[in-house]
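Lab meeting, action items carried over

1. Structure of the two-component assembly. Owner: GW. Status: complete.
Input record:
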Amino acid sequence: MIRERLKQLREKMALRGIDAYLVTSSDPHQSEYLADYYKARAFVSGFTDSQGTAVVTRDEAILWTDGRYFIQADFELQGTEFKLFRQGVPGVLTVAEFLKDRVRPGGKIGFDGNCVSYQLYRDLLEKMDDQILIGSLDFIKEIWKDRPALPHGEAFAHQPEYTGSTVADRIRELRKRMGQQGIDNYIISALDDVAYLYCLRGRDIPCNPVIFAYALISRDQALLFCDMAKLTDEVKEHLASNGVEIRPYDEVGDILSQIPGKSTLFFDPASVSIALIDRAPSNVQLIKDRSIVGAMKAIKNETELRHQRNAYLKDGTALVRLFHWIETGTPTGVVTEVAVVDKALKLRSEQEHFIENSFETIAAYGANASMPHYAPSQNRQAVLKPKGLFLLDSGGQYLDGTTDITRTIQLGELTDTEKLHYTLTLKSHISLISAKFKVGTSGHYLDAFSRLPLWREGVDYNHGTGHGVGYLLFVHEGPHRIAVQPNAIPLEEGMVVSVEPGLYVPDSHGVRIENICVVKKDITNEFGSFLSFEILSVCPIDTRPLLVDRLDDHEIQWLNEYNQSCYDKLADRLSGADLKYLEQATKSISR
Amino acid sequence: MIRERLKQLREKMALRGIDAYLVTSSDPHQSEYLADYYKARAFVSGFTDSQGTAVVTRDEAILWTDGRYFIQADFELQGTEFKLFRQGVPGVLTVAEFLKDRVRPGGKIGFDGNCVSYQLYRDLLEKMDDQILIGSLDFIKEIWKDRPALPHGEAFAHQPEYTGSTVADRIRELRKRMGQQGIDNYIISALDDVAYLYCLRGRDIPCNPVIFAYALISRDQALLFCDMAKLTDEVKEHLASNGVEIRPYDEVGDILSQIPGKSTLFFDPASVSIALIDRAPSNVQLIKDRSIVGAMKAIKNETELRHQRNAYLKDGTALVRLFHWIETGTPTGVVTEVAVVDKALKLRSEQEHFIENSFETIAAYGANASMPHYAPSQNRQAVLKPKGLFLLDSGGQYLDGTTDITRTIQLGELTDTEKLHYTLTLKSHISLISAKFKVGTSGHYLDAFSRLPLWREGVDYNHGTGHGVGYLLFVHEGPHRIAVQPNAIPLEEGMVVSVEPGLYVPDSHGVRIENICVVKKDITNEFGSFLSFEILSVCPIDTRPLLVDRLDDHEIQWLNEYNQSCYDKLADRLSGADLKYLEQATKSISR
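Predicted assembly:
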């Protein structure tokens, strides 16, 4: 199948004299998760997960992905011509280095400019010698015969009782910031930025409650570009009453081409495509920087946080029921990973205001959990047995919040290594989540808090420690993150972020413990102003796999307090055997 | 006095139409520590410590310094016209921002271009509107009548038995690296880089065993520019036999002006002055980057490390005697801070191959220790009393190594806060020094390991956590450092670095615990390759002030093992009451 697709692609390349064709994991909005229509990279390579880049030359086919997906990519690329290039591993060529090495000066590199960000384009351009970049070639469109349709779901307004501020409030604040930076026009492409600004949600991408849309804000106009069919009368009224004008999706380029010459145009180069920016008049002054709306969106207001807390209570209720169900069912041999996925969705669906999952559920038993982003399917899944560890990373979209949580539980006898790795992962989790940190501290610096207890024992994990989480929006939201990779963005009061260290041993087991937190003010004294985390997630952390002697006193105290808080918050919401299970699961431990 | 100097300076400024005059803490080599001749900033402002910048306008006089010196600067600037601008405090103008704000476009900013680095000059230039920078004005020379003489000490060769490689070896390695980067000529201005490359030492700057010199390396020549009178016949032979040619110090500019056009000239923009670079022909291609010799020098070879270990043994022997002397003498009321400084020098002098102190001894009793860089003098010093804490930060230059160590000891009854701060400082110290870390980890990231236990308790220190240490060279040596300020330089095997967290409460007390370490290979396994620290410093850490209940098991174990290792290494070198003191000081503790 992949062989046939590569053959067709290379025929197109030969016809147009293209030496290398680049296929990104992207849509015109540079979304992380894609509607099926835009899964061109998965179509061409067979690697199905969310992050990766493919390059096809006349005699090579390469897929790049990062540490989270190495194991899965190895598996999925088996038997295809594609070779895996491991991003971030020393000595492995980057996409740009590969293109420069394989394509002769004067040679041609083709791609679909709608699915390549301005930033990626400029980075590539800078690194080439004299290779020519041609961004007008959507070859995938030509060879993908049974391509899925573009989504047509309805949009809905996220009401002020949930958002805590109106669309008009948000536009006013944005215009204030634009004015301070001398910005006349601001083109917004990131779907969650558009959704946040206009308090608008939809169902265009599974798990990502947005619609395909652009926004263009000037000093006196606020435009929304989208498929008009998605807008109900109610939504139209919501927009009109806040001063937002609606335009067809496809007109964004035309309108952009008409903004006044010599005015300034701001955009986030990471989320706007090179094809769109190419439409702006050449005498417009481009201002490129990190999204201003993104910075506004990252700081949750008190209304948003109040609802988020409630969403996590509901989510925890569903999860305790789920874990009880898993543990009861496992010994009977009928609980499969897919059954867990289905049951998780069913239990969450019973909670008020549930909409859909916030990402594809990772239900991973035993060795499957060693793949941090494993997702089971009917064709490839395990049956849970009363032995070893089971990892569940899942979340929901609720009208009042987006959840994401990982727990790893003991199903039966554990090896010493499983116990050790579980214990060290919890130490790592506590080390970061119980921390205080100075105002101005970046997520990069904080990442060290999580690695310290692991590195001391000579173990580590090959993924980030924390990501921002949206509010009825994307489960991965910037600009902040907690990661080894340098970033200078400070964690600020009101930011929501995950804390999710793990340990993975291929072919054996995997552990991850994830809670979602909000950054809160802590003490201010003569040594400075400190922040700390309030934990939103409410679900007991399994104490059974722990080597209690390896825990410090403050770690035991933190764990007991956390589990007790889960009992206090959830007991009223559970009854019968579920409540008994909660009681058992939240019992305090001691040395 | 300061008033008179400012008056004279302003007269010079008025005569030449200068609106602002900049005085850096620098010499033509951008040294951190200065020969008396170059202490122009101290002369003009009265602030005597090693870091600071002065700007004088017609009606303002401002001194910038960083957190280490705030308290001292406040003290020393009292009664002068100078205002203190606290570097790094939010809202405080930087030097460039101040100049841009106070000098009108077209106005003139004067300075001595020999004492301003290329980098500082370019940074200033970039930030100005249309203010004019004039780098040929050494007004201080004109007004400083009793200026100290330039130093005239003799140079000496650091022999291969100590350096582990010859000058010829080092030049060969340097030329290899120059070749790889297409460098034809390399002008070296940093005094320790010259000293390292040519295995040459001297006494031109107190505590810094170097001579004033430049080096210029091309593919076929290796030149040393220095005062010929400093070179004995033995040194001349050492240089000649390694292919190094000698030129008068003042000819460096002339020779630089003669390098072939169209060739490349490499230099470290942080250490070469703008006045010198201005001498290079305009058709030479400048290549600016971090010092290549500095990168070579930072990685100590096995011979250097073997000698360093021995130097630290000698240093520890002197220190144990010193602390015994202090504790015995304190109750009699005759031990002053200056007496400790003198005694420390005397005891170090008794050790083999001792040359001089490696920096000005910080002997700080009680509240004086709250100033991290306090140095006592006959006019301002305390008498030690059997109460509270005493901090000693000191080090020596030995033929076989440079030492630097801080201990804080209990002299008598302590407050609860003193005990807590001592305990937390030790926790911070252990957290970093006992760490393993992945190959590639920067000192910025590692800094977090040290802050974590302090921040958790809402305390912090306002200085870096660690600096590189030279080998019979500067006690502060780059390019690596451990600090909150971002830097991307990874700690590598063979680098020597300090670990020195502290806690300071103005008008009350200060604690700092510092050891010097070398980065060593640690475990390599399926999780990656790890590094860790080997501690070079050998001197017991006082256990008496500790709140033992606040220590974790692994911290108690680390402390007992460290103190036991001090006993094992030093017992043979001590006798009588000194040995008894060591026995007492290294007794293990438990909860």
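2. GW to write a short summary for the group page. Key points so far: Chain A touches chain B through 33 residues (CB under 8 Å). The first helix of chain A runs from residue 2 to 16.
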